Amino acid sequence: MKILVTGAAGRLGSQLVAQLQEEHHVRGAGKVGDASHELDIADYDACRRLVADTNPDIVLHPAAWTDVNGCALNPRKALRINGLGTGNLAAVTAQRGIPILYVSSNEVFDGALDRAYNEYDYPNPLNAYGYSKWHGERAIAQVNPRHYIVRSSWLFAHGGRNFIQAILGAARAGKPLRVVTNEVANPTYTNDLAAAIARLIEAERFGIYHLVNEGAVSRWQFARHVLNLAGYSETPIERISRHEWSRPSLPPEYTALANNAGASIGIRLRPWEECLRAFLDAEAAG
User: Fold this and answer.
1) Is residue 151 a contact partner of residue 105, using CB atoms and an 8 Å limit?
2) What are the tens digits of pLDDT across the range 242-257?
3) Which one of 74, 82, 213, 217 is CB 3.0 to 4.6 Å from 221, fit for a cystine?
4) Given this model, what pLDDT does residue 245 score?
5) What digits encode the pLDDT tens for the residues 97-145?
6) How many helices (H) and strands (E) does the chain have?
């Protein structure tokens, strides 16, 4: 299968390229060596040329502006990249009859339910990032009938800086830790998500999927588990409300996702506790 991956220099995109190239012919849109192309997804003609030149059997589209605070400060840019840019890819793939997989977010929901969100619960985003991702979902669903929409949450990956690394960095430096107790979602290991996506495109079952590591947890509980596993069980963490953590973008409160559609075709991700331990072991070994 010929696969085009957008955002191939990003954490999820690079992991998709690494896993899929073992069995498929993969091209990446991003700075990832020889098998790569530059792409501004907000440029329709650039999207059209790239898809025409690579002629893939499927396009995987994890590329996005994921800086949620940046999106809050510049919602027009968020919409241009995450919404309208995704619409460009939806249009050019639909014109050529090519399936597309779009990676979306739990932040398309408002967090008002007292249960995990199902795949076809109606989105109601609270912030600019969530709105831009929902706009992308709508573009995909309305323009290209051969689509996968994959929602995930709280991704963590090797390299760069994420929530886990921020918590451990503060603990090592002896800095005080204050973590929110009333934001709840599913921590998800990028390696596991990439493997699940690889299985999904082989299944050829279009639709909406919630692919997250199993189990929901608060930010505070997640941080506590990280420190305990890393040998900082005596390090205190102050419990605070999400309204006490000042930031431009306020995330929804409870956005755990239920994996119903994926599980129905045999695609499940391991519990978040297991993937966290695997992540920390790999970090220590690397």
Assistant:
1) yes
2) 888 788 888 999 999 9
3) 217
4) 79
5) 999 999 999 999 999 998 999 999 999 999 999 999 999 999 999 999 9
6) 11, 13
Q: Go through 43-69 and write b for each residue having 16 or more CB atoms within 10 A of its CB, e for each that does not.
A: ebebbbebbeebebebbbbbbbbbebe
Taking the alpha carbons at both ends of the chain, their separation in whole angstroms is 32
Q: What is the pLDDT of residue 38?
A: 67
Segment 165-195, tens digit of pLDDT: 999 999 999 999 999 999 999 999 999 999 9
Q: How many CA atoms lie within 13 A of 238 on its CB side?
A: 10
Give the per-residue pLDDT at 37: 55
Task: For Cα atoms 184, 185, 187, give the angle at the middle one, nearest 5 degrees.
Answer: 125
With beta carbons less than 8 A apart as the criterion, state whether 32 and 26 touch.
no
Q: Specify the amino acid at residue 127.
A: N
Beta bridge partners of 155: 188
Which sign, positive or negative, has the C-alpha torsion 229, 232, 238, 243? negative
Q: CA 11, 19, 109, 102 torsion: positive or negative?
A: positive
Give, in degrees to the nearest 5, the angle at Cα 253 between 247 and 254.
150
Identify any residues that bridge with 179 across adjacent strands, giving them in sequence order.
Answer: 239
Contact 195, 243 (CB under 8 A): no
Domains and CATH numbers, the chain: 2-160+186-213+256-269 (3.40.50.720)
CA pair distance 148, 144, nearest whole angstrom: 10
For residue 45 the two structure tokens come to: 């003609």
Q: 3-class DSSP state for residue 93?
A: helix
Asked whether 147 and 96 are in contact (CB, 8 A), the reply is no
Cα Rg for the chain, rounded, in angstroms? 19
CB 140 within 8 A of CB 93: no
What does the block give as tokens for 179? 């973590």
Burial of 136 (0-12, 13-18, 19+ CB in 10 A): buried
